[in-house]
Give the backbone structure.
Amino acid sequence: MNEEKKQADESAELMYVKCAYCGKWMDVKPGQMNWVSHGLCDDCLKKELEKIRAHPPGADNATP
Ligand SMILES: [Zn+2]
């Protein structure tokens, strides 16, 4: 998988946004030099939302 198409080619300050779950690179946008920000990609975000919906926080406490 060659993800390094035009990375590090420009000397502009770029911020890389990476998915904290699956490690997929999501976005590159102007920001701090070589800064890597972590977030959730659409896929992982959906999974997380479904997980939360299936198991709402506190639900385990309510049922003995
Ligand atoms: Zn992801």
